Amino acid sequence: MTVSPETLVTAAGRLLSPGPGTAGALTPGLRARAAAVLLRMALDQALDTYWLGVTPSMTRVGKHRMLCLEWYAGHDTARRCRTTWSALSAACHYRTGELPPSPAEIRTRLLEVTGLLPALRPGTGTTPVMPTARS
After folding, report:
1. Comparing C-alpha atoms, which of 117, 88, 110 is closest to residue 101?
2. Residues 85-112: pLDDT tens digits?
3. Is 15:100 a contact under the CB 8 Å cutoff?
4. DSSP H helical ranges for the chain
């Protein structure tokens, strides 16, 4: 069973803003970490779907699909994907002595993933983009 990236983002939003009577069931840090996992899954699925439309072999290695994204989706989209994916990956991992991610931080990432999903829909920006000179 595959869940759409939009459904995962919605579930992450519910974790970050629990309804009345459910806030005490999980700590805010645990809800934020669980939401980060869902958001990273949503971004991974959106990237896989994007690359299936371009070339299916790009879905096999996560590093390659991120490195090559700039050539197909543009510099801004690729930069946002890398930054968001890296931040979500860091938030997903438990490290002894480190505080969990804050719900506010993950809400920011939720907005970023929500903004990236339309840019990664099949058929958007699948023509290679020539990078411009940066100053």
Report:
1. 88
2. 999 999 998 888 888 899 999 999 999 9
3. no
4. 5-16, 28-54, 62-73, 75-92, 103-119
